[in-house]
Backbone:
């Protein structure tokens, strides 16, 4: 998988901030379960990109 650009990361975290804390906690728990000890920044960003289904939006606005 190609590394995310700085703009993609910023946009991803903007989207992430729109979710309520309970939903964020649930996603973090799922991440921890799925990756079991392989907790890298890249894995977390890729997980969020998939979970938030943001890649299509990036393509539409020219970030991908």
Residues:
């Amino acid at each position: 998988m190609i590394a995310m650009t700085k703009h993609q990361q910023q946009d991803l975290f903007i989207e992430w901030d729109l979710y309520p804390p309970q939903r964020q906690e649930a996603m973090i728990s799922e991440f921890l379960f799925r990756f079991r000890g392989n907790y890298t920044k890249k894995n977390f960003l890729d997980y969020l990109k998939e979970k938030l289904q943001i890649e299509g939006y990036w393509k539409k606005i020219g970030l991908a």
The CA atoms of residues 1 and 40 lie 14 Å apart. DSSP finds four helices and no strands in the chain.
